[in-house]
Amino acid sequence: MFWKGVGILDIILFEQKNQKKT
User: Fold this and answer.
1) Rounded distance, CA 16 to CA 9, Å?
2) CA dihedral in degrees (10, 8, 6, 4; nearest 10)?
3) Which of 20, 1, 2 is nearest to 12 (CA)?
4) Residue pLDDT, tens place only, 1-22
5) What secondary structure does DSSP assign to 1-22, as a single string?
6) Beta-carbon neighbour count of residue 3 at 10 Å?
7) What is the model's pLDDT at position 20?
8) Can you tell me the distance from the alpha carbon of 10 to that of 2, in angstroms, rounded to the nearest whole number?
9) How far is Cα 9 from Cα 3, in angstroms, rounded to an integer?
């Protein structure tokens, strides 16, 4: 299940990068 956490972290980091681009 830990892999799921990594995926979530990846999504969070990706969203954060998108927000910075705004």
Assistant:
1) 10
2) -150
3) 20
4) 556 667 888 888 999 998 876 6
5) -HHHHHHHHHHHHHHHHHHHH-
6) 7
7) 77
8) 13
9) 10
